[in-house]
Design a protein that fits this description.
alpha/beta, TIM Barrel, globular
């Protein structure tokens, strides 16, 4: 079945649960209080400055930037779901596609780097390249382009952080868990010095280091999110701040986390329709 879901819609649905994005600049004002339900969350209004900002830069930067390789088969929504994940055209999904047996990415990786070269081995190459990085130059380029704000992927789905985190991820090899430089802090300072606002993307629920099995179907996107949250609960690690909306996706995989029935939200229904599971009901 061919999907008509755009990349923006997919990322909004798949990442709204595990990811936290925050922009700042002005002194913080008292935060409004929201209830853990979709009706309450839909009352959120974006700040006026965001409505006025005509251009922002979203920086996807991480270990996947080292190979910088993917299969150019088309945009999200133009490719059948049964082919999408094996041939994912976005390099930030390099690790997941690498794990799929026989995928073009896996073949490319083995031919280019060898079968014994693990994805996390890119950390050494990444850290070496970042030693010569000048955040002021990057921020200046964004400002020259007319950007009013910048958002950085502080941690993408591979679990590698762009700052030397003091909280070690037990599922990643020692010495390959984070950037040596505080990329987040340095770029934030440079962006604000250039008169722009800074935002942060953090993928919490969708973290492949907590689940070694590759995502090969649209349904597995949500089951992976739920698995990550369960592992963190068992280990006593903090959850993503958006943990409550994550539970609203339980009906996709027919899980019950608290014994309370919850309706399937609009985004969940959209993805169910696109994946041929529109008839599924909450349990």
């Amino acid at each position: 079945m061919r999907s008509t879901l755009s990349r923006r819609s997919f990322l909004a649905a798949a990442s709204a649960a595990p990811a936290l994005i925050r922009c700042g600049g002005d002194p913080p004002s008292p935060a409004p209080r929201f209830e853990p339900n979709w009706d309450s969350l839909r009352t959120h209004e974006v700040p006026k400055w965001f409505d006025d900002a005509k251009l922002g830069i979203f920086v996807h930067w991480g270990l996947y930037s080292v190979p910088g390789w993917a299969t150019p088969i088309g945009e999200l929504g133009e490719v059948d779901w049964d082919k999408w994940f094996t041939n994912n055209p976005y390099s930030e999904w390099y690790l997941n596609t690498l794990r799929i047996e026989g995928s073009p990415t896996q073949n490319h990786h083995r031919e280019t780097y060898g079968e014994d070269f693990a994805y996390m081995d890119f950390a050494a190459h990444f850290n070496e390249a970042v030693r010569g990085w000048d955040p002021a130059v990057m921020a200046g380029l964004f400002q020259e382009a007319g950007a009013r704000y910048v958002v950085l992927t502080t941690k993408h789905h591979d679990g590698f952080t762009l700052w030397p985190s003091a909280v070690e991820n037990p599922h990643l090899p020692s010495g390959q868990r984070s950037a040596e430089r505080d990329i987040v802090g340095e770029l934030t300072a440079a962006v604000r010095a250039a008169g722009m606002r800074m935002g942060f993307y953090y993928s919490g629920g969708l973290d492949w280091s907590y689940n070694p099995e590759p995502i090969e179907t649209i349904q597995q996107v949500f089951s992976t999110i739920l698995h990550t949250q369960r592992v963190r609960r068992l280990r006593g690690r903090p959850l993503a701040r958006t943990d409550t909306p994550i539970r609203s996706y339980d009906s996709v995989e027919r899980h019950r986390l608290s014994g309370t029935e919850r309706p399937c939200p609009d985004r969940c229904r959209l993805l169910q329709r696109q994946s041929g599971r529109a008839d599924q009901q909450p349990v």
